[in-house]
Amino acid sequence: MSVDQTLFREALLTPDAPRPAGLSDGVGQPAGRRFDVYRNNVAVSLTEALETAFAVIRKLVGDANFKLLAGAFLRQHPPSSPLMMFYGAEMPEFLARFEPTASLGYLPDVARLELALRKSYHAADAAPIDPTRLQAMAPDVLMASPLVVAPSLQLIRSPWPIFALWDFNMNGGPKPTAGGEDVAVLRAEMDPEPVRLPAGGGTFLSQLLQGAPLGLAFETAAAEAEGFDLSHMLTLLIGANAITDIGDTP
Amino acid sequence: MLDATKSHFDRLPHAPGVGYKPQHFSDLLENAGSVEWLEIHAENYMGDGGRPLAQLRHLSERFAISVHGVGLSIGGEGRLDPDHLARLKHLVGWLNPASFSEHLAWSTHDSAFLNDLLPLPYTEATLQRVADHIDEVQEVVGRQMLLENPSSYLAFDESTLEETEFLREIARRTGCGLLLDVNNVFVSATNLETDPISYIDAFPLDLVGEIHLAGHDEDHDDHGKPLLIDSHGREVAEPVWALYEHVIAKGGARPSLIEWDTDVPDWPVLEAEASRAARILETVV
Predict the structure, then answer these.
(1) A129 plus A30 within the same structural domain
(2) In terms of residue numbers, what domain contains A237?
(3) For residues A166 and A163, what is the distance between their CA atoms, to the nearest angstrom?
């Protein structure tokens, strides 16, 4: 009898399913728990990949709960490509729907931040702009120009204190308090760093990422947050090598 | 069938190499010891940039590199993933490695990647499918590949060919070379109660472009019989070293890799394993 890969895969991903017939120990006995070596390899390797990828989620829910969560996730969402570095993209939506965690409203956005950090780590390298180019521009020309940002720059906007949750769990930072946070992931060289943005900063970056001219991005941010400090924001981005070029004026 | 003139078969030194782990980056640059080449898992270097590619670029100036794929699913029933093939072509084109290899196994089915090397029945139908896939890989990537023998925990009742016959015929049909994993030979022979020396003696050693050595764990099956697990998490076992000596004495020196992927040790422990392989390689000229 032949064991096709559909059958093999179903049996691998279903812990209590019968093992496929037609497999033996090589000398006539049914394979039995020899099949479980593969079952175990799949479940353990995918669980470990998720533990590495979502270290903060793991701390927030605890090791034992994370194992349960990972077991359910990997069966619903086995990797769709062999690039394990990007495994877990569906985690935020999964956490929002998963019954035992659905009441922890902040988990999906914390997972988004962890995904953004990995995305940033593997993003393309890009040479930063020479700041004297910006200084040499007439202010009205500069304000009419979009800025090109590095591929490693990520923005996560949340009604939850996701930076504080990350910092508390990864660095022993202060205990999080209620309130939304917008977080930029910046990669000056090789190591992505999450940075909590000041009021208006999330809107400003969001505008830049959409290709808005600098002036429009500033006005939109200033309309939302009185006293929004453009030069502080530009210093932050330039200091983290996050601006790579001046875009074409629309 | 690949044009043999494009073969890069001899470009890895006939010396020890190690599977590259980022925690050994500085050690490798400062004190590589007997290690002359490195192997990377292709899929870990398929991002767009950042530290992994920067380190690889740096290391490739100093060491011959072997690109070892773990995710192509050459034994899969479906067609090869064209996106993944394109990524391999890109990596191999960019890096121009000394060797490129993959596994006799499957890992993707119905677009789910299972992150393990899953077993195949040895039948004429499987043989033709694997040969077709290897033809496609060599065509797209544009060079010869080496195919690695698997470690087996079970056997398929439907198999009609010996693994050594199966690999020899694949190589004949496609022009690919072979990667002989000596630990896998020992693990499979123990698990399926066959003789590892007979396996080596039936293996086409002249087609071997690279050898793998690794540690395994010991477990038992339902009947209390030994079940070895290919864990890559400890030193190479003594009987595997003995089998390796047999391979080298019979087939001559080959590029020989120490694989240590879990519970990765400090550099001196890994280098000591490579030194042991070097001493065995020095026994033949």
Answers:
(1) no
(2) 124-250
(3) 5
